[in-house]
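User: Fold this; tokens only.

Assistant: Input:
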Amino acid sequence: MFIQEEKNMQKDRMTLKDLAVKHPYYASDSNYYANEAGLSYPSMSDFLADFAYADIDMNLIYRWDVHFSSANGNETYWAQVFIIQQRNGIYTPVIIHLFEEKDVPDFVSLVSKHKEKLLELWKPID
């Protein structure tokens, strides 16, 4: 029980800097089969408004990347989220142009649920 509580506390303390890691390989920012499959959001708040309570079985986030940019002296973070809409077989890359610290807890909560779903899909393999 204590270990799970500690993990939850660590998730609650994450920052944009913590999330901006270089993941191995990459995911395509376009869909080979359909140009209109991608989505774009001005902010993480806007993305979360649409996807925070979306059906995970229908909109499975399988990868995400947070990026740091320092153009023109402005330091900002932005994100990419990659979704499989499983029932329709649609691969949906999403770009989120602004990711602010205030949105980190809600984003971590969202992707944590999707991580649990991914682990469930791979049972019984640990």
